Structures are given as C-alpha cells and as structure tokens.
Amino acid sequence: MIEILPNWHPVFVHFTIALLSMAVVFHLLKAILPAHNEYQATLSILAKSNLLIGTGFAIITAIAGWFAYNSVAHDTPSHLAMTEHRNWALLTLGIFILLALWSLLQKHKGTLLFLLALLIAGGLLATTGWLGGEAVYRYGLGVKSIPASSGEGHAHQHKKGEGHGTKTANQAMSDNHHKPISETEHDKTPHQHNDSTSNTGLNKEEHKTEKSHNETPHKH
C-alpha cells in the first residue's frame, strides 16, 4: 500500500464518478438531439463506452470500498455514516450493472424507460458521492492526519508572500527564540547570564536596596 493512502478506494472512485456521470450526459444528449444529427453516432459510442467502462470501475471501487469499510479506524457516528454510504453505493452499483447489461442487449436507439432509469441512477450516484464526502470531510474516515487550523476556512489574511507552511522550521524556531517572555517565565526557564547580564541584575538589586533604604523611616 502506498504510504499516503489508507486504502485504494479513493483512487478508483473518481474514475467511477467521472465515467458514469458522462455516460448519463452523453445518453441525455443523444436523446435530445435529432435522430439524423451528425453527432448521433459519436454520442452513441461515447455513451455506451462510458457506461460500460464506468460500471467496470464501479465494481473495482466497490471491492476497494468494502476493504476500506472493514479496515479503517472509526467510532460510532462515523460507523453509521460509513454504513449509510456503503448501502447507497451497493444500490447504485446494482442499478448501473443492470443498465450496462441493458445497454449491451439493446441494438437500437435507447428507450425512454432506459433513459429515465439512467437519470435515476445518476441521482443515486450523486447521493452516494455526497455521502462519501461526508464520511471523509465531516467524520474524518480514512484521514491519517488533520492539520491544526488557523482560521475559519480561508476567511483570514496572510502577509504578502506568506501562507500556511511558508516558514521553515529554522524560521519558526527563530521566531519562538525572539518571542518576549514574562518575568515569571524568565525566572522558571533554565538559562545562563553573561557578565553584562549579571551586572544588570546586580544594578537592579542595588537600585531596589537604595530605594528601600530611602523609603524606610530612620534617624540620622
């Protein structure tokens, strides 16, 4: 398994969605345009090939999704979201398999019933994709690392030439090194003083002693 991927499902699912969506579009265009239009033959090839190849990818995607369903870490809410996505995906896959077989068997122009069934399948595909996105982006399924957020989406500004992650580690350490600290933090932090720093500390103590001496009532 590639290090950046928890499973192969995200690799195949985009091909499935793209191919089957275009199959719906090409079949719809084929039905709308006149029967003797010059693009009918091309649309027929594109519609059928996208449907068949897309269904093949859908089967592979479903298999990869099944392994993901049984392997990714999850809690109760994410399990419910994952199960709902799985159920819609299996229903959608079953309908597209039937449509692919139907497409192979019909020799003439697709019927209105076929087009209606294909549009319904396209709606199921969109719903399944939406639920898959919810499972990942809302519940974090299959996500290895979530970055620390620094604002509401991108409703914040960066300095010119800066953005998330533009500073190097050395620059970040340098910023922390020069960050001012309170006197309490200074006292608690292990550190060393050079001669000038020590002299400054002695001068402060002498000043405090002199001030205390001046404020204390005494007789001469």
TrEMBL record:
InterPro entries per record: DUF2231_TM (IPR019251)
Bilayer-crossing regions: 12-33, 45-68, 88-105, 112-131
Keywords, sorted A to Z: Membrane, Transmembrane, Transmembrane helix
Biased composition (Basic and acidic residues): 175-194, 203-220
Top-level taxon: Bacteria
Domain DUF2231: residue ranges: 9-144
Residue span of region Disordered: 149-220
Pfam families: DUF2231
Glycoprotein found in the keyword field: no
Protein name, UniProt field: DUF2231 domain-containing protein
